[in-house]
Amino acid sequence: MSQSLSFDAANRTVTLTMVANVPGTPSDFNYNGYTNGALVITVPKGWDVTVHCNDDPAATYAHSCTVVRGPEAKTPAFPGASLPDPTGTGFVTAGEKKTFRFTPGAPFVGRFACLLIGHESGGMWATFQVVNGGEPSLGTKL
Ligand SMILES: [Cu+2]
Asked: For position 30, which CATH number holds?
């Protein structure tokens, strides 16, 4: 998982790779093998965030990627913080990779979620938080 997040502190850029539907985990509705907020992404306010949203080559389902303010929110928390049309055509299918880029302008605690119907409620979301200062990190919680 360590290679899922990298950053350049001098340029305040962070790159996050989220792989949907990783096999061998209890649920197909996971990112990087984690469900229900257990994966915790932390990004400082004002950094340039590039997200690679990849569907695992062996994925069973199509999936999507959006940073949202809370449970079942359907719009991005910040301009550009989503694949385009995340509840419609903005998905990735098995082996497919798409990228989006945004700059979070204010601290908050929200979610990185799949907005395809039934996926977030099935556990497909990570915790996404924006903090004042510090460095980006990727962690886990129970
Ligand atoms: Cu999904």
From this structure: 2.60.40.420
